[in-house]
Amino acid sequence: MTDDDGPEMGADGREPSVDGPATSAGEQAGPLGDLAASVEERRAATEADGAERGSDAAFDDLFDREDVPEIDGERLWERLEADEPDEPTPPDDRDVREIEKATYCHQCEHFADPPAVACTREGTDILELTDRDRFRVVDCPVVLEDERLEERY
User: How do the domains of the chain map onto residue ranges?
Assistant: First the structure.
């Protein structure tokens, strides 16, 4: 055979392996033969283990199956549309401010311990996190006092 004829074929009509010819029982000869053999052993052991326990047994052990009733989509949308908002809107007579949380709340003795995000001062509420650096608060005397002092000077 010449170089132009392409790779030389083995006795079974296939190209020889890059790692070298196969030896007995699926072992590979060559520089990566030991690695290929250990991977093949692990693959065979995993497949045998899965066949013994059933292919989905390990997966099924991770979860509890429960029967749930069918969800009526129309009824669900009706309930969602009829629900009142979780957070009541503050009355008009309350003083709502948007403040930097690091400047006020995180420095304040009335700020609740994590993981809660709340003000423990009576009459003062944190309504929402408006962005990652700001809270919307209601009737905070610390904020009102700072604003009053700024107006003086």
Answer: 28-63, 96-152
Interacting residues of 117 by C-beta distance below 8 A, sequence separation 6+:
126, 129
Is the pTM here over 0.70, yes or no?
A: no
Residue 74 main-chain phi, psi, to 5 deg = -65, -45
Pull the structure tokens for residue 122.
């009576």
Cis peptide before 115 (omega within 30 of 0): yes
Per-residue pLDDT tens over the stretch 73-100: 888 888 888 876 666 565 568 889 999 9
pLDDT number for residue 9:
54
131 bridge partner residues: 134
Q: With b meaning 16 or more CB within 10 Å and e meaning fewer, what string describes 112-133?
A: eeeeeeebeeeebbbbeeeeee
